[in-house]
Amino acid sequence: MAHTRTSATFPPPVMEARRWLDGVTFSDDTPLINVSQAAPVDPPPLALRQAMAEFTLSQDSAHLYGPVLGNPDLRAELAQQISTHYAAKVEADQVAITSGCNQAFSAAISALTDQGDEVILPTPWYFNHKMWLDMAGVRAVDLPTGDDLLPDPEQARALITDKTRAIALVTPNNPGGVEYPAELMLAFFELAQETGIHLLVDETYRDFDSRSGPPHDLFQQPGWDQTLVHLYSFSKAYRLTGHRVGALATSPALLSEIEKFLDTVAICPGQLGQFAALWGMQNLSQWVAGERDEILDRRAAIAEGMPALEAKGWKLLGLGAYFAYLEHPFDIASDDLARQLVKDAGILLLPGTMFMPDHDPAGKQQLRVAFANLDRAGITQLFDRLQALTF
Fold first, then answer.
1. What's the CA gap between 84 and 117, in Å, rounded?
2. CATH class of the domain defined by 13-43+287-387
3. ω before 214 within 30° of 0 (cis)?
4. What fold, for 63-284?
5. Per-domain boundaries in the chain
6. Cβ–Cβ < 8 Å for 103, 266
7. Do you find a cis peptide bond into 172, omega within 30 degrees of 0?
8. Which one, of 131, 134, 142, lies nearest residue 115 by Cα?
9. pLDDT, tens digit, 9 for 90 and up, residues 63-122
């Protein structure tokens, strides 16, 4: 096959990891613990599924094309929710609906960059961001974060060239879990504004942030939409992963460019997913609050379990949202270790090498645990197996 921009990037990591299960059998005593993917495994709550079924049966519009940038009622509701969540004023024409948050990122990058441009990604990065930049012919410039997993705006400044078009942040972070402080977010916003580039902020996991009140004040900045591109997903909050509903918020002028991408790739977001997202926002706020409490309790269980692992030489680098990001103590590269864990411990997780550029050795000591689908008993079992490891 000829060399193409698509062939230049790596295979989808979650699919790659699933192939490690081929031919492996797990005993009743040691069933598989799958902490490889950050997605709900349960369906939406019954009331939402019933509302979706009724919509499908009774409304012809459920089966037809809609506006490219999303349905007006959903755009207006999301604008209102963003305004409330961030104590700001966001208008419906600053919001667009996409077929998942990955598409929101891809659309924004396509509108902002030309082939050969650069986008700064803190490492460890979200691998689908890196993959899309590769496929778009855009150079991902890695910004190492160190042990606290927080990027440094001044280090980012040193990486900006005349080819830089954006900095992309993820908070709460995937894969690291860390919640970026409000003052750090503002520093990156001011850096982007000063240098004339865009700041992309992916807040897919914002509904599981441990902090109360607005997590940052970027939407309160005058002219925020000239610099900020905010990305969001309905998938995690309402368990709509299979319906692919995401969103972005930025200037109407940039959205008109993004509309070209969306029209060409998907024409419009799916009607059923849009209905579900709107119904969820209007009816499930208490339910989502309960889901958040459960995730925060699982996060606490990870923190409580860490001292026993630390005694074995492990380090917790980041914890939050759906993720724990660990440094392992073994003299074995994390990609080899992750494969070995499937056979030796019945654990499927992703190695840090999937979130790092090849030239950065830190990834070989790191592992990501997506713990959202484990209850406290499952987390205890996971930690027991990790403690028992010897290499």
1. 35
2. alpha beta
3. no
4. Aspartate Aminotransferase; domain 2 (3.40.640)
5. 13-43+287-387, 63-284
6. yes
7. yes
8. 134
9. 999 999 999 999 999 999 999 999 999 999 999 999 999 999 999 999 999 999 999 999
